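Sequence design from tokenized structure. All designs in this work follow the same two-part layout: the structure record, then the generated sequence. An example of the structure record is given first.
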């Protein structure tokens, strides 16, 4: 029963469907506080997040509890609709969305450990061969698992085809989310 605003994505889904970031507000637009409940930052995780949102929308006790405390609830469905549809973590720009919220007018963070790992994580031949596995094993033995994990998962802004790429500019999802938040 809530009004839904759809922000249409520029590309179609994997089955040619229209993609959108959908937004609904439960409660008063002038409420004292605003709780944001989103899904699908990492596209494929959107299924679980959608379930949480649907449950929350149907939970009258929870909605009443929020209202009594002066909260409106803003539901943002599918922050990354492209990744959601295409069963990918990343956006259509190959960007890991949660690493895309940077000040792009300033120098971007540098992940010093990633350049050495990039060719090991994305070898020229797929699937990885025994030499690749040995190189990764050697890296871990020499540098430790914590450094390997940090180098991989910290995110990076230098390799657009790489893992956990944060982008070099705001993505469609980033810009659209910021627009939605400014409106509310």
């Amino acid at each position: 029963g809530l009004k839904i605003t759809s922000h249409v994505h520029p590309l179609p889904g994997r089955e040619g469907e229209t993609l959108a970031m959908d937004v609904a507000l439960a409660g008063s637009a002038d409420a004292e506080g605003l709780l944001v409940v989103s899904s699908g930052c990492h596209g494929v995780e959107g299924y679980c997040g959608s379930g949480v949102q649907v449950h929350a929308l149907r939970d009258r006790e929870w909605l009443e509890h929020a209202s009594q405390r002066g909260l409106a609830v803003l539901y943002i469905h599918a922050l990354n609709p492209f990744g959601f549809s295409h069963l990918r973590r990343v956006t259509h720009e190959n960007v890991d969305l949660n690493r895309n919220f940077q000040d792009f007018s300033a120098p971007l963070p540098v992940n010093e450990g990633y350049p050495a790992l990039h060719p090991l994580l994305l070898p020229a031949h797929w699937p990885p061969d025994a030499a690749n596995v040995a190189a990764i094993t050697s890296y871990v033995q020499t540098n430790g698992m914590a450094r390997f994990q940090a180098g991989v998962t910290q995110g990076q802004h230098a390799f657009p085809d790489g893992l956990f790429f944060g982008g070099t500019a705001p993505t469609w999802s980033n810009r659209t989310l910021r627009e939605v938040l400014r409106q509310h």
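The helical segments are 46-58, 60-68, 81-85, 114-121, 130-143, 145-153, 172-183. We note this feature because it recurs in several other targets discussed in the main text.
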